Amino acid sequence: MLTISNLSKSFPGVKALSGMQLDVRAGEIHALVGENGAGKSTLTKIIAGVYQPDEGQIEYDGEITHWPSPGAAKAAGVHVIYQEFVLFPHMTVAENIFIGNERRGLLGMVDHGQTRKDAAELLHRLGVEIDPDKRVVELSVADQQMVEIAKAMVHKVRLLILDEPTAVISGHEVELLFQRLQALRADGVAIIYISHRLEEIFEICDRVTVLKDGQFVASRAIADVTRDQLVALMVGRDMSELFPPKATAASGAVVLQAKGVSAAGRVRNASLTLRAGEVTALAGMVGAGRTELALAIFGGLPMTAGSVEIGGKSHSQMSPALSIREGIGLLTEDRKGQGLAMLLDVAANITAADLQTVSRNGFLDRARENEIAREEIASYQIACRGPQNPVVTMSGGNQQKVLVSRWARTCRRVLILDEPTRGVDVGAKAEIYRIMRELAAKGIAVLMISSELPEVVGMADRVVVMREGTISGELTGADITEEQIVRLATQSLAA
Q1: Are the C-beta atoms of residues 8 and 53 closer than 8 Å to each other?
Q2: How many CA atoms lie within 13 Å of 231's alpha carbon, on the beta-carbon side?
Q3: N or C: fewer beta carbons within 10 Å in the chain?
């Protein structure tokens, strides 16, 4: 369906792609992987007609092709579903599906009845039941993704590109997405699947192409490559080097105890102990209450029962301000929506939770703020142009390191990390793991929430497993295995 040969693209001061090659067949799901900055986004935008290549050739369905615009690519059956959905939240599902391709009746007026009918038919073909009259803002993220796919199907989609499609969904929603993609593959659609989640690559993809530093590295059949080999192709180091060695010394003193905490109708009588120098993982299936428990401990959600004990003091209700004063930090799961101030620079984001240190007589001391930011940029190896670099222009991995540096500055006792490596590449993951271990070595208790079982097994000194809002078990040492975690996460509460 698609053959790319010797494709190159440069921007001022940057060679984004050099001699790129790729071939994607009809009726296959082809993974495109590489670290942030490898050239995946640039290649995608060239295929979609957003950028024009400097040199090279694109062959589409047997013919040499040049798309001067995204509209021309769409007309040819090429559709991209970006990580950030392109939907109008206050318009209906049907209106979003047919935006720009409205069903019209007499005198060219929009035929809303026909629009709803055609939208319902498209959604039914995808195997999902979504009300065409519902506003997009009222949908779950998984349903919004189905609306994006339905938009692509308005035209005859022949090549579908998905950029990090599971970054904002998980569990059952991922299974439903995979079913839809397998159905499209069976219909002969060529699918390019971009993801940092290697377990998904091996579950759903037929072949994989690896990019590094804007260049083609290799293409392999999934059946012919192992996870370790794929990581080595992407980052140039062995998988065994991804996770730093676990702590060998005994854990330190208890720094925080959550006792019988209930919150938000999602957490019931949960108790948790965190110790200095220990990385504790909070594991469980989606909806188990992990994030809600972390938010209750930090004060982001009110507790309806229980208490949190810090430094010998018991608190029946927490607040973010109290947590920060007590040396507790929280890196949220949604770094863009809840963590970063996207329109501010690196310096402002790093110092956001500790303004006292960069203020003088009630006024912000920008020189001091920039000085601190330069130190943190060097310490955490944050790739940016300097303290004034807007965080919105940075890669996901570097945005995440900005947040880690913010909380590492303020937390003296506990750092809570909710899905710390979601949406970041393998190289950035290794850096974040290293930082977590260094913080633990300094005596900080690290609580990591993660849905990636290899990450939990590779990083945790102790694993606390939740199911249906309660603590279902705890694992240490050799008992920390994927099988044991899944057993505790899925077993009957009466077992």
Answers
A1: yes
A2: 19
A3: C
Per DSSP, the three-state class of 94 is helix
Rounded Cα distance, 203 and 189, in Å: 18
> Which tens digits make up the pLDDT trace of 447-495?
999 887 888 988 999 999 998 889 999 999 889 988 888 788 876 444 4
Cα 79 to Cα 36, 43, 160, distances in angstroms? 22, 14, 5
Read off the DSSP letter of residue 110. B
Contacts of 394 (CB under 8 A, 6+ apart): 346, 383, 384, 402
Tell me how far apart the alpha carbons of residues 23 and 184 are, in angstroms, rounded to a whole number.
Answer: 18
Cα dihedral 58, 64, 68, 70, rounded to 10, equals: -60
For the record, the structure tokens of 319 come out as 């607040």
Contact predicate 394/335, CB 8 Å: no
Helix/strand/coil for 245: coil
What superfamily would CATH give domain 2-237? P-loop containing nucleotide triphosphate hydrolases (3.40.50.300)
Q: Going by C-beta distance under 8 Å and a sequence separation of 6 or more, which residues neighbour residue 52?
A: 46, 68
- Residue whose token pair is 């809600």: 292
Predicted TM-score (pTM) of this structure: 0.62
CATH architecture of 254-490: 3-Layer(aba) Sandwich (3.40)
Q: Are strands 55-60 and 159-163 parallel, antiparallel or unpaired?
A: unpaired
CA-based nearest residue to 83, from 359, 366, 423: 423
Tell me how far apart the alpha carbons of residues 208 and 331 are, in angstroms, rounded to a whole number. 32
Backbone angles phi, psi at 488, to 5 degrees: -70, -30
Name the residue ranges covered by the structural domains of the chain: 2-237, 254-490
Q: Please tell me the distance from the alpha carbon of residue 165 to that of residue 203, in angstroms, as a whole number.
A: 14
For 129, which DSSP code? Answer: -
- Interval 348-392: pLDDT, tens: 888 888 888 888 888 888 888 888 889 888 887 888 888 888 888
Residue 263 forms beta bridges with which residues?
267, 303
Query: Minimal CA–CA distance to 233: which of 212, 251, 248?
Result: 212
Q: How far apart are CA 189 and CA 236, in angstroms?
A: 32
* CA angle in degrees (0–180, nearest 5) for 318-296-257: 75
